[in-house]
Amino acid sequence: MVPERWRDTRLDLGRRGALVLAGVGAVAVIAAAAAAHRDDRSVSAVEPLPSPTTAAVRSPEVSPRADSPVPAAGARSSDPQAASVAANGVAELVVSVIGVVEHPGLLHLPPGSRVADAVAAAVARDGADLAGLNLAQRLADGDQIVVGFPAPASEPRLGSTVVAGAPHPPAAPGASSTPGVSGTAGAQVNLNTATAQELDGLTGVGPATAAAILEWRTQHGRFTSIDQLTDVTGIGPAKLERLRDQVTL
Fold first, then answer.
1. Any idea what the Cα angle at residue 182 is, between residues 179 and 186, rounded to 5°?
2. What's the number of CA atoms in the CB half-sphere (13 Å) around residue 191?
3. Between residues 224 and 43, which one has the greater pLDDT?
4. Which in 40, 68, 82, 167 has the greatest CB count within 10 A?
5. Keyword DNA-binding: yes or no (predicted)?
6. Closest-CA residue to 140 (of 193, 90, 191, 66)
């Protein structure tokens, strides 16, 4: 309530008073606005923090190196020895070398070996007849190599030859089982000049017995009697009787 005595009274603040009053009002408005803004911030909702997520850990993938050798499908081995084993079905060759050599007997050679390899392993003696052998011939499992010595044609000699280890096919009726031998009845083989192939063609004589006969000739020179066949390893009285009509001197 305004006292009655002030009701008709007009205040004249003047220019200076008006400025002061306006300044006080402005300060009040600013203060009120600041208080309202502070209250709004204090009551604003707090946003929830994002929940932590679990990242899947993947194991590193190992990619093949560019320089790593990758065998091509269907690739074949370049090893000639492995290819020979696969073709022949044997891991090694077993051959026999006898005659004029330092180390006669059985030799174990890799597949693909040749006659020259076997002769070199057995060490041919001085004067051995290597001209009678085909040194480039490829060997087969079970072959036998006979190393002889050269001699004048008029004298009996042990000829060099390679005896195949494979079984011989049965001869046709009336035909000879070896080249150079007549198939007629009564054809005989000379014990002192026959080759390993000719001896191998006799009934009851195989590659081993033929080689033994040649070895006996190497040591003793020549047969003077058919009965001397019993001195050869592997020939007994029964086999001698079977051979008596097939051989001559």
1. 140
2. 27
3. 224
4. 82
5. yes
6. 90
Backbone angles phi, psi at 4, to 5 degrees: -60, -35
Domain of residue 210, residue span: 168-249
Residue 135 has a CB neighbour count (10 Å cut-off) of 13
Bin 242: left if φ > 0, else alpha if -120 < ψ < 50, else beta.
Answer: alpha
Tell me phi and psi for residue 127, to 5 degrees.
85, 0
Residues 199 and 150 in one domain: no
Supply the pTM of this predicted model.
0.34
Angle at 101 between CA 97 and CA 107, to 5 degrees: 35
> Do 179 and 203 belong together in one domain?
yes
Side-chain-side CA neighbours of residue 29 (13 Å):
6
Q: What is the residue-wise DSSP string for 231-246? A: GSTT--HHHHHHHHTT
Could you tell me which of 234, 213, 211, 210 has the C-alpha nearest to residue 222? 213
CA distance 45 to 40: 10
- Both 160 and 210 in one domain: the answer is no
Residue where the block lists tokens 């020939």? 235
- The DSSP secondary-structure symbol of 204 reads T
CA distance 149 to 132: 9
Domain presence at residue 194: yes
